[in-house]
Specification:
metallopeptidase activity; hydrolase activity, acting on carbon-nitrogen (but not peptide) bonds; alpha/beta; nine-stranded mixed sheet; TIM Barrel; 2 domains; globular; Urease, subunit C, domain 1
């Protein structure tokens, strides 16, 4: 069935004015000032009134523990896997699944299976190969082969550095990972980037910087995440981004963590932009279903909570409403910027020929009203039309 959204304010993410948008076969077919379907059989199309709403691309969350994460407090603290309804509530239409600290009981086979399940349930899902550990625990035995041969795998990660839970990789080991991922990406037409977990160590981005300075690997081969973990890391991230690197903020947090040294994402985004970092170098991800552990000075676990994918849009919205960032800039960090970093053709933009992954948000309070993924309404007027298989 054709779907027509009429008289809606279109953000591509750039504002394009009031438009009518026609969707067919899971893609955007037309964007015009006015589209008239009255000559067609009314049963062949569905019309949605977009007046009073903004149309924007569906969110891309490129760092989610889709099979669950955690375990830093033993087996009982392993977090549950992601459910489809959480994604829909958060306006997320595309995901990238990762494995974190636990690369033993959380396996690549399970990660791929969960990605395929989410795709069957109606959204788009990709994966990174590996986990915190080095050597990287891959699916086929090779980073390059994983990226080339496995449809869902687009890069490597999340490789941990500057953290007491990491394998303490050397410069040579990180360079080899980046090289293998890069070649795999080149040969398969994928991004082949390396998602790098950053901990609290004062080394911060030092290992990545050493690889960039001593090899031919470009700075854009790395996506360092958790850049808002502490003020010192945020400052290092500003310098890194000004050199042309990408930086990724983590939106999931707790009140206790924010009362420490962590910077709220919306506030950190404003600081980076005001410091001269192009907004296109910045992304937000949720770290959804990942554990949010708290450690004391000796590395002992003192608390544990769970990340939520719904935090992604909340921080985008707060960037507009609390920090005064333009809507079209704020939404880039979870739409077009992510699509560009990960080479997701047809994602992250409202454009003719692009996938019909779309959000309708209220003009007044920017709350998500409706969610469309691959041309199907998943939520309409805040009513969930689709749920996961076991929800």
């Amino acid at each position: 069935m054709l779907k027509l959204i009429k008289d809606v304010s279109v953000y591509r993410p750039e504002f394009s004015g009031k438009k009518d948008v026609l969707i067919t076969d899971g893609r955007i077919a037309l964007i015009e000032d006015q589209i008239n379907l009255e000559s067609l059989d009314p049963s062949s199309y569905d019309v949605t009134d977009g007046s009073g709403k903004r149309l924007m691309p569906g969110l891309i969350d490129a760092h989610v523990h889709i099979t669950g994460g955690g375990g830093e407090g033993s087996f009982k603290t392993r977090t549950p896997e992601l459910m489809l309804s959480d994604c829909i509530a958060g306006g997320i239409t595309t995901l990238v699944g990762v494995i974190g600290t636990d690369g033993t009981t959380r396996t690549m086979t399970n990660l791929i299976a969960k990605a395929k399940a989410l795709k069957e349930e109606g959204i788009s899902c990709y994966c990174q190969t590996g986990s915190y550990q080095v050597p990287v625990k891959t699916l086929t035995g090779s980073i390059e082969q994983d990226i080339i041969l496995i449809e869902e795998i687009i890069g490597a990660g999340e490789i941990a550095i500057s953290d007491h839970r990491s394998s303490q990789p050397t410069r040579e080991e990180l360079a080899r990972i980046a090289s293998d991922a890069r070649v795999g990406g080149i040969l398969s037409g994928k991004a082949g980037v390396v998602n790098v977990h950053l901990g609290d160590s004062p080394d911060r981005l030092k290992l990545i910087e050493e690889v960039v300075e001593t090899t031919d690997i470009p700075i854009t081969q790395f996506v360092p995440t958790h850049i808002n973990r502490n003020e010192g890391l945020l400052e290092s991230g500003i310098t890194f981004a000004k050199r042309g690197g990408y930086v990724d903020f983590t939106t999931s947090t707790t009140k206790e963590i924010l009362e420490g040294d962590e910077t709220k994402c919306s506030r950190g985004l404003k600081k980076m932009i005001n410091s001269g970092v192009p907004v296109e170098q910045i992304t937000f991800t949720s770290d959804g279903q990942g554990s949010l552990p708290e450690f004391d000075a000796k590395g002992n676990l003192t608390g544990l909570k769970i990340g939520r994918v719904t935090s992604l849009y909340k921080e985008v919205r707060d960037a507009v409403l609390e920090e005064g960032i333009a809507f079209e800039d704020a939404i880039k960090v979870a739409t077009s910027n992510v699509a560009d970093v990960y080479k997701f053709t047809g994602k992250g933009r409202v454009a003719v020929g692009a996938d019909a992954d779309l959000l309708l948000v209220n003009e007044s309070d920017l709350e998500i009203e409706s969610v469309m993924a691959r041309g199907q309404w998943m939520m309409k007027d805040k009513e969930h039309l689709m749920k996961g298989t076991f929800e």
